[in-house]
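Input (Centromere/kinetochore protein zw10 homolog):
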Amino acid sequence: GEVCNMINKKYNEFLPSMQSAEDLVAKVDGLSSNIDLLKAGIENEVQQDLNVAVAEFTELKQQLEQDTLVLSILKKLQEFDTAIKDYNTALLEKKYVTAAQQLEKARSSLKMLESRKGFELKILKALGTELTVQTQNMLYHLGEEWQKLAVWKLPPSKESSSLESVMHSELHLRTVPSKEEEIAGPPVASVLQAFAVLGELHTKLKIFGQLLLKYILKPLISYPSLQPFTEEQSDVFILRFKSEEPNLDHSSPMEVFYKIQLVFEVLHKYLLNVPLVQPAEDKKECRVTLAELLGDMIWEELSDCLIQNCLVNSIPTNSSKLEQYIEVIKSTEEFEKALKNMHFLKGDTTDLLEYARNVNSHFANKKCQDVIVAARNLMTSEIHNTVKITPDSCVGLPRLPGPATGDHLKMEKTSKLLHNDMVNLENETKLSQYMFSLPTCRISSSVEKLMELAYQTLLEATASTDQCCIQLFYSVRNIFQLFYDVVPTYHKENLQKLPQLAAIHHNNCMYIAHHLLTLGHQFRYRLTNILCDGAATFVDLVPGFRRLGMECFLAQMRVQKGEILERLSSARNFSNMDDEENYCAANKAIRQVLHQLKRLGKVWQDVLPVNVYCKAMGTLLNTALSEIVTRIAALEDISAEDADRLYSLCRTMVEEGPQVFIPLPEEDKNKKYQEEVPVYVQKWMTFKELMIILQANLQEIVDQWADGKGPLAAEFSAAEVKSLIRALFQNTERRAAALAKIK
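Output:
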């Protein structure tokens, strides 16, 4: 029973909540269907109304935008119109800056109008034209004003830029504004500011700057005699020139700087000290002075001109003057400072000052250039002006300090080639100075000067800064490289044509090679420390110079040999000398050869060193004798009369040949060399033996042969002797017996 009650109780409690849940469900169902009805209603009616409203809204919005655009365009057109009106008013009142600003306003209104897409107005083209016309009109007015402010009086353009025509240049600057303009502020400022607003200032200033450079600044740098001269009148300031006798070819930088500074001060005072507002790209306006703008335009050209025509000339040419150059650097600094104060220059050191401060390097460059130019002039001068050198001649050699004595060097003509009778070489070997001496001969005086130049330059190097020392050392090496390249080419034709020049050139090369052996050595204390690996030497150039001299001389020898053989070729092979015509031809050929050798002996006399002379003449005489021997030995038949005539031709050679040996101008001293001819002429004895054969009988020839041990055997082979015997003698038993003994 208990349980039953409990269940009933719970059930009774449950029923109402169940009931309320069912009610709830029913309510929800009702609501849901209401919503469905409403949704259907909205979809059918309200949505349509909404779409209509949005469309209307969009249309209105577009309408508004269109109206705003039209309004802004009308506003811009109105702005343009007002600007042009205001411009006209300002222009009439000569308020140039205002007028220019109004034009620029009109310009920016027009730009806005042109940038509207989809809105092309025919009127815009007309407005553009109007603006252009007004701008040109304004520029014309400004140009007129500007021309009154700065008036150029120039020489007629067809005159050259000579000193005379430059004297006619004047610049007039107007100083006092006339009454009606006083209201507009200083006329210079307003005219120039208006140009600036219109963006035309640059062009105007550029033209002014070019005239200033051409007619005032550059002439002041180029002509030392020009002085700027100023004159102030009531309303105008005049800048012109007067001419004074200059004391030098080039003015000192100090004088030039002074003149140019004066010109800038005048310009600054009367024209350029005008602050301007420059329209800048990013709409921020920047304030500059006119001087800055002009400076930017002309400084580079002006400073180049100052460097090239003024500073370059002031660089000293010897190291002793380098000290005084401080003055130039100082005055360059002051010049730049003055220009900076006037705003012509901005920023730090310019090229001009850099150049002046860099004097050591320019000194070295200038020195090296001078050295090379001097050397080149010497190399291209005549070879045939000669000087005689002897074993104890010397270059103007400096007496050099030892390693410890510092750099105080003095030039002295030393009496010996090197400063001691004994040259003290690195390895302490004592050598007599004659080990290094040159034989007596003639060299071009230009080459002696060239060598002096080399010594002087090395001497200068030892007293210079390290950098300069290195440059000078290498420029001395360059002198010799240059000689090696220039001389053989430049004098090529003469060296081939003129035997005397070839001989002098040979001596020149040997002389240079000789000095190059010791050149670096004498300066070693100073140069070796600076040049790496003790490279302060010229020894490597020696073989090249010896070869150069030899090759030129040998080429000349080949020419002479060719001529000798050419002449002997007209001697009809020395055959049939019993024919008068043949004999004359041979005799003439021999005479010509002797004449050629005599002439050579004369032009080489006193030029070539004696030993070279004797070898050269010996070689050429030998060529002639050798050719004659070959021709005669080849003959197949020599009659008794032929033999006599051949003998007399040969005797001419033997008697007159030695007389071509005249190495020295003093006659009596040449005897010795003429007696030594057999030493220099290889075929001399052969020739003498041939003459003996031409006069000998069979027995005498066999005796001369002496079983291959006699003098004849020393000069001719058995075959040659047999051939001569067959040519000279009839075919008899005696001849056969003689031939049998020659073997």
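The first strand starts at residue 150 and ends at 153.
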